[in-house]
Specification:
Belongs to the RGP family. One of its GO terms (molecular function) is UDP-arabinopyranose mutase activity. Pfam families: RGP. It is an enzyme of class 5 (isomerase). The chain is an alpha/beta fold and 405 residues long. The protein has one domain. Helices cover 35% and strands 14% of the residues. The protein contains 13 helices and 9 strands. The radius of gyration is 21 Å and the shape is globular. It starts with 13 loop residues before the first strand and ends in an 11-residue tail after the last helix. The structure holds the ligand O=c1ccn([C@@H]2O[C@H](COP(=O)(O)OP(=O)(O)O[C@H]3O[C@@H](CO)[C@H](O)[C@H]3O)[C@@H](O)[C@H]2O)c(=O)[nH]1 and manganese (II) ion. The site of manganese (II) ion has 7 residues, from loops.
């Protein structure tokens, strides 16, 4: 484990959200990387149980009593007895970025034997643009030592804001229950050294165990649905959130990336229990995926919240024939947005001082380094002078070419 304290980019702009029913001793392995960040622990199950958190971490812990107290009647939209409860942490955070990780995920090593700082890689993924419109065959063009390949349109090299960074897993891959049952000994040993943008118009199976996102740009869509207790389905919260998030990200021309970083997943759950939770999803999704593939939002949907409400109407109209559950889910989607807006309205959120600092630094940045933000993007090279300037940087790209998408 690295002995020296690691630099902590965005440490005042990012929360780490952990859903748990277990003691959090796994944090010891992450201490060098997580030690300077604020944790939001969402305790599922019996609220009277005490969750042990190792000394020295800065955290807030919310159990079911807290969820009920804070949300009141809206608490019905937060799942019970499923990792989907983690989205409560997204709701109460006041930060621009979220990293969420499961408590059976540990620090992995890269092929050179180095410990992987998964959080730093996610931050890098989020702070550099994505390329949803045109696939770069040399993978992430903004990575040191890579670039856009010949034939890649200059006018597209500025890229788009990245809103989701989806990390992967060594050891236990995120297989569904049937696959786990027929391949109980299979382990993922393949480390693929790549980050890719998931092309616009493509869905993907988002796994919540090693995931980061831009809460400011897409957080309102990161609802993990209604799972488990009282519901006919479980273990699909992250997949549902990923489908909703991707169609909304496409609508706003935001990018979603997958690949690095890897974590080491030491799966703690039982495939038999998961089978009972997941099985109905295995056949529902044969209709749910075509539904999402057909989703289009009207131009009036100018915010994530408006898109999400529109999506809830489509769910109610076009999926309820599958099962009445989708009516309940559509209602819960509306409740989620109501809760999101209530907890995240400007009145609710104190204006963070650093936002003012960021804008002032944006002014100086604009005068000092217009070249690196107006010319270099078109040359396919983005310099991130200071990661914490990203939020102001995002609004300072200027297109040298007008490219109608
Ligand atoms: O009722 C529950 C069960 C678990 N948790 C916490 O949620 C995460 C994930 O739990 P676990 O690692 O046991 O689940 P897996 O089968 O390995 O993975 C599933 O979880 C999702 C990925 O995050 C996805 O549905 C599956 O891949 C842990 O932190 C548990 O402590 C919970 O809060 N409540
Ligand atoms: Mn797990």
């Amino acid at each position: 484990m690295p002995s020296t304290k690691v630099v902590a980019p965005l440490k005042d702009e990012l929360d780490i959200v952990i859903p748990t029913m277990r003691n959090l001793d796994f944090l010891e392995t992450w201490r060098p990387f997580f030690g300077q960040y604020h944790l939001i622990i969402v305790q599922d199950g019996d609220p009277s149980k005490t969750i042990h958190v190792p000394e020295g971490f800065d955290y807030d812990l919310y159990n079911r009593n807290d969820i009920n107290r804070i949300l009141g009647p809206k608490a019905t939209c937060i799942s019970f007895m499923d990792s989907a409860c983690r989205c409560f942490g997204f709701l109460v955070s006041k930060k621009n970025y979220i990293f969420t990780i499961d408590d059976d995920c540990f620090v992995a090593k890269d092929p050179s034997g180095q410990d992987i700082n998964a959080l730093a890689q996610h931050i890098q993924n989020l702070l550099t643009p994505a390329t949803p419109f045109f696939f770069n065959t040399l993978y992430d063009p903004y990575r040191e030592g890579a670039d856009f390949v010949r034939g890649y349109p200059l006018s597209l090299r500025e890229g788009k804001p990245t809103v989701v960074s989806h990390g992967l897993w060594l050891n236990n891959p995120d297989y569904d229950a049937p696959t786990q049952l027929v391949k109980p000994l299979e382990r993922n040993t393949r480390y693929v050294d790549a980050v890719q943008t998931i092309p616009m118009g493509n869905l993907f199976p988002m796994c919540g165990m090693n995931l980061a996102f831009d809460r400011e740009l897409i957080g309102a869509a990161m609802y993990f649905g209604l799972m488990c207790v009282g519901q006919p389905i479980g273990g699909y919260g992250d997949l549902w959130a990923g489908w909703c998030t991707k169609v909304i990200a496409d609508h706003f021309r935001f990018g979603v990336k997958t690949g690095l970083p890897y974590i080491w997943h030491r799966k703690a759950s039982s495939p038999f229990v998961n089978m009972k939770k997941e099985y109905v999803g295995l056949y529902w999704q044969e209709e749910v995926i075509p539904f999402f593939q057909s989703v289009e939002f009207p131009r009036e949907c100018t915010t994530v919240q408006k898109c999400y409400i529109e999506l809830s109407k489509m769910v109610r109209e076009r999926l309820a024939h599958l099962d009445p559950y989708f009516q309940t889910l559509a209602d819960a989607m509306v409740t989620w947005i109501e809760a999101w807006d209530e907890l995240n309205s400007v009145a609710a959120a104190p204006v963070p001082v650093d936002k003012k600092d960021a804008s002032s630094s944006a002014d100086t940045m604009e005068s000092e380094s217009w070249y690196s933000y107006y010319i270099e993007p078109c040359l396919g090279r983005i310099r991130i002078d200071n990661m914490s300037k990203r939020s102001s940087q995002r609004f300072h790209y200027t297109k040298l070419y007008q490219y109608d998408k």
